[in-house]
Amino acid sequence: MRGARHAKWAAVAAAVALAATACGGGSSGEAGVLSASWGDPQNPLEPANTNEVQGGKVLEMLFRGLKRYNPKTGAAEDMLAEKIDTTDSQNFTVTVKDGWTFSNGEKVTAKSFVDAWNYGAHLKNKQKNAPFFGYIEGYDKVHPEKGEPSAETLSGLKVTGEQTFTVKLTQKFSTWPDTLGYAAFAPLPKVFFDDHDSYLQTPVGNGPYTIKSYDKGSVMSLRKWADYPGTDKAQNEGVDLKVYTDYGTAYTDLTAGNLDLLDDVPAAQLKNVKNDLGGRYLNTPAGIIQTLAFPFYDADWNKPGSEKVRKGLSMAINRAQITDTIFQKTRTPATDWTSPVLGAAGGYKAGLCGASCEYNAAEAKKMVAEGGGIPGGQMSISYNADTGSHKEWVDAVCNSINNALDNNKACVGNPIGTFADFRSQASQQKFTGPFRAGWQMDYPLIQNFLEPLYATGASSNDGQFSSKAFDGLLKAANAETDIAKATTTFQAAEKVLAEQMAAIPLWYQNGSAAYSERTTNVALNPFSIPVYNQMKVN
User: What is the pTM of this model?
Assistant: First the structure.
C-alpha cells in the first residue's frame, strides 16, 4: 500500500494481469515440454507490481536476481551477486557478476538493478511492492505518505561502476542482503523503460526461460533459453502453464495423462492420490500459513471489545478435526503466525497464539457474547473458488463456528469466482467480513511473516490492521544487528497479534504436487513453488 511507514517488505512474486475465464487441459504436443496447472494472476509481469503466487511461478522461471533461495533449504545464496560488502549493516557495496545478459542480448549491469529499484519505489509507477524499497534512503522523497514526490530516484542508490553500486539504508538491517532473492529486486532491461507496452506484451528476463506466447485464460507457453548463462539451466524444453478454474478438472486431466504437473492437489482427492498415482505424489513442508483476516476498515469489526469476538471465533474452530478429515494431514494446526519451516533459528516458536488457538466451544461462545456478538448477527468468509479447494475448508470452519455458537446461521461461505477477482476485492477493502489470507514466505525469516501483513499501511495488509505497539517492535527488531535479539523482539510483536487477534491462524500448509509418468526429478521448493527448471520430461 502506498505511504507505508513501517511496512518495508511485500509478498510473493509478480504476474500477468488477466481474469481466469476458462479451464485448461490437454498436452502441448511438443517433445520435452512440461504441462503444468496454473491460474491467471492479478497484475502484469512487472517484478515490483504483484504480491501473489501465480505470477511468482512465472518470475521464478523468467528472472534471476542478486540472490536466489536454495530450492532445497531456502537459504539465500549468491546468484548475480559477486559479493555484497558492508562494515556497518547499513551501507552496502554490491558487485554484480560479469557475463550475464537478458534474453534479448543486453548485458546485465549495476544500472539494470538500480533503474529497476528506482522504478519500483516511485509513487507515480503505482507498484504494489514499492514498500519493499522502503529501507533505502530517499524512499520518503520518491514515495511520500502524502503529496507529490520531491525526487525521481532513491538517494541511497548510487551506480559506482559498470558492475558495482552502493546502497545506503535508513537504519541498520543485518539480514537485508537475504531479502534480495525476492522478485521485486530483479533487474530490468532497457526495453522495460523505453517501450513499456512492448515489454508488457512480451516480458524479457534473464532467467532460464523466455515467454513464447500467452493466451488469456488458457495457457502461457515458456521455452528454454538456450544461451542462459546460469548454472541452473532448464532440464526440459519448456513449460506450458495451463489455466484451470477448477483444480478438480486439473486432477482428472493429470490422471488421464493430459497434464504433467498439478502443484496443488484438491482436498477432495487427497484420500485418493496415493492409490491413483502411486509414488508420483509429493507432500512436503512449506513456508505457508493459512489465516482468516478481518476487515479492520469496517468499524463494526474494529471497536472496543471486538478483539473478544475475534478470539472467540478462533476458539470456535476445531483445527485438528479439519486438518485430519479434509486435508488428510497435509496441514498442521497453527499455534502462531509464522511457519515451522523457519525453525528456531528463523524465528518460529510454537504456542505464541496461546489458548485463543485451542478449540474450546464453551469459551468461544462466551467470548463472542462478551465482545458484543458477530457484527450484524452473521459473518461471511470470502475466498476464491477457482483453486486451492477452499470451499471444503471454509464450509468446515463455518460448521465448526456454528456448532460452537449454537447458531447454524452465524457463519457462511462467500465464494468469489476467480483468484484475480478475489485479490482485487481484498486489496480494495471490499469485504465486510473475514476473508482467506494465505501467506507464502518470500524468504525464510520471521520478519517476512509479520511486517508485510500486519504493519500499519503494509502492502499486503489488506484488512488494514494497525497497532503502534506492533509497529514499534518491528522497527526495533529490524534495527537489531544481533539476530537472536532481533528474533526475540519479533516474537514479542507476535504477542501483540495474539492480544488483538489481528488474524486467525488456521494451519501450516505442506506443499503438495502430483505428476505424470513421463515426468521425473519433480520437487517443490520451501516456498511450495515447483522447481520447474530441474524437471525432466521423457
Answer: 0.78
